[in-house]
Amino acid sequence: MISGEPLRVITYLTPSIPERFFRAIADHLGRHLGRRAELQVETRTSGPVLDDDPFELGEADVGFMCAPSLVLLRAASSPSVELVPMAPVWADERTEGRPVYFSDVVVRVDSGIDSFDRLRGRTWAYNDARSLSGWHSALQRLRAVPAGSEFFSSTVASGSHLESLRLVAEGRVDAAAIDSNVMALGRARHPEHAAGLRIIESWGPFPVQPAVVRASLPEEFKRQVAAHLVDLHTGAEAAALDGIPFERFAPITLDDYLSSPAVIEAARMVAEDVHH
């Protein structure tokens, strides 16, 4: 039976991760929780911060975002979200069945670039400045580069991992760091682009982008959200996931994020950028 109050789900991870993935999740949860599911897609950034938090405003119930935003929202004096202790496992042998992902540095096959060091003086695309895999992982990698002049000749904020891939494939920029799950999706959706690209370096693993739930919701509701995500890959909505390299939801803990130096450093840098 569907109640009058909707289930409001928001994702900050599209278009890089297909909207239909999150639509399937919203429909699955709505069906089990007896609520009409509404999906909001936020494409301007990889996640909220304290100044633009729909959970604090009571405008979202469940969300999917990049890990730095989880850390920042949890660090508030009265956190607006709690981690859903389940996260996606993607079909990548490197994950070894864990809810983790990687940042893959891609260049054109015909570029002659065979290492990160050879990107000095080249152009770089990134999806947005709150992204761990697309931006902050690169900033952290640059710390291992000997000091000198600016490493990249220029950087381009593309707006999404998919757009970064397109820019590299078309030769409009020299390289980008891409969410490994987006790489897998890109190979399936645009094999003509994938055939012309090469991964020269991979960073990670990082804990995969988290699912969160509004902290002010009833405890039983939060428990049910986690419990029902376990069944997504076998539920009625599973057919909508065809072509998406998703395997299942698996347990994850807040400590998996808080014990990741890459996630914590990215969250610190996002917070500094917001305050400036």
How are the SSEs placed, and which strands pair?
Blueprint: E1 3-11, H1 19-33, E2 35-41, E3 62-64, H2 67-74, E4 81-83, E5 86-90, E6 100-108, E7 123-126, H3 132-142, E8 154-157, H4 161-169, E9 175-179, H5 180-189, H6 191-194, E10 197-207, E11 211-214, H7 219-229, E12 246-251, H8 254-258, H9 261-275
Helix pairs in contact: 1-7, 2-9, 3-9
How is this structure best summarized?
The chain has 276 residues and is an alpha/beta fold. The chain has helices at residues 19-33, 67-74, 132-142, 161-169, 180-189, 191-194, 219-229, 254-258, 261-275, and strands spanning 3-11, 35-41, 62-64, 81-83, 86-90, 100-108, 123-126, 154-157, 175-179, 197-207, 211-214, 246-251. It has two domains: 3-91 and 209-275, D-Maltodextrin-Binding Protein, domain 2, CATH 3.40.190; 100-206, Periplasmic binding protein-like II (D-Maltodextrin-Binding Protein, domain 2).
Descriptive notes:
The chain is α/β, with parallel strands linked by helices and 276 residues long. The protein folds into two domains: 3-91 and 209-275, Periplasmic binding protein-like II (D-Maltodextrin-Binding Protein, domain 2, 3-Layer(aba) Sandwich), CATH 3.40.190; 100-206, D-Maltodextrin-Binding Protein, domain 2, CATH 3.40.190.10. Helices cover 32% and strands 25% of the residues. It contains nine helices and twelve strands. The strands form three sheets. Strands 2-1-3-11-4 form a five-stranded mixed beta sheet, sandwiched between helices. Helix 3 (132-142) links the parallel strand 7 and strand 8 (154-157). It is globular, with a radius of gyration of 19 Å. It starts with a strand and ends with a helix. The mean pLDDT is 92.
